[in-house]
Specification:
The protein is mainly alpha-helical. About 50% of the residues lie in helices and about 10% in strands. It has four helices and three strands; from the N terminus they run αβαβαβα. The chain has a three-stranded parallel beta sheet with strand order 1-2-3, covered by helices on one side. α2 links the parallel β1 and β2. α1 packs across α2. The radius of gyration is 15 Å and the shape is elongated. The C terminus is likely disordered.
Length: about 120
C-alpha cells in the first residue's frame, strides 16, 4: 500500500492478505533517504482505521533512527537498499554491525506505546 492508496483499497488488500500488509512509506523511487517520510504517519492511520492486520513499513528506511520511528507507528520495518549498500561497502562484518544497530533501535521502539488497531478485520 502506498501513500496514495485509498482506504477502500487498503481494506480490500487486508481482506485478501495472508496475514499482513506492506506499506510503502513514500511516493517516488526506492533507496536510502535522509529522513522518515512525512507521508508515513497518515498512511498508517488510514490503514489502522480499516484493518487490524499487522502493518510492515519499508521503502526509504535507511538509519536506525528511521527504523525506530517507523516501528513506533507500525508493526514491523523492512530495510532493503541501505542494507545492500552497507554489504557492498563494508562486507559481512559491516552488514552484521548495521543490522545490529537496527535491532537495537527497534528494541527501543517496541517499548513505546502504539495506537490500538481499529476498524473491521
Amino acid at each position: 500500500m502506498a501513500p496514495t492508496t485509498t482506504p477502500e483499497r487498503i481494506w480490500l488488500a487486508a481482506e485478501r492478505t495472508d496475514g499482513w500488509l506492506y506499506l510503502v512509506s513514500l511516493t517516488g523511487p526506492t533507496g536510502a533517504r535522509n529522513s522518515l517520510s512525512p507521508q508515513l504517519s497518515p498512511l498508517v492511520e488510514r490503514a489502522r482505521s480499516v484493518t487490524s492486520v499487522p502493518l510492515l513499513v519499508g521503502f526509504g528506511i535507511s538509519s536506525p533512527e528511521q527504523a525506530a520511528g517507523a516501528a513506533a507507528l507500525a508493526d514491523g520495518v523492512v530495510v532493503g537498499s541501505r542494507a545492500v549498500q552497507v554489504a557492498e561497502e563494508a562486507g559481512p562484518n559491516g552488514l552484521r554491525e548495521y543490522v545490529e544497530s537496527l535491532r537495537q533501535a527497534l528494541h527501543g521502539a517496541t517499548e513505546m506505546p502504539r495506537a490500538a488497531p481499529g476498524g473491521p478485520s
